[in-house]
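Hey, I was hoping to borrow your eyes for a little while. I've been staring at a protein lately and its backbone has me curious. You're getting the sequence in one-letter code plus the fold written as tokens. Would you mind checking whether the tokens look sensible for this chain? Here's the protein in full, and shout if anything looks odd to you:
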Amino acid sequence: MAVTLAERPVNGFHSWRDGEDLIELFKHIRFGYYQDFPLEDQLMGALQDGLISMLADGMDSEDLEKISERYGIE
């Protein structure tokens, strides 16, 4: 179910609502926080696609600033 939701989120992903959570989830999966998750590759692909589409659709500068400050991105 997690993969299905990531592939087809209700009303899509939005930076103001989902940006920080998507990055946090992506980071946790990438660094093994959810060990033995059975569909890790599929979920990572869906989350990556969601992040890319969120950026491609345009992101409010305040949302981008909030995310970059949280993760030390300059």
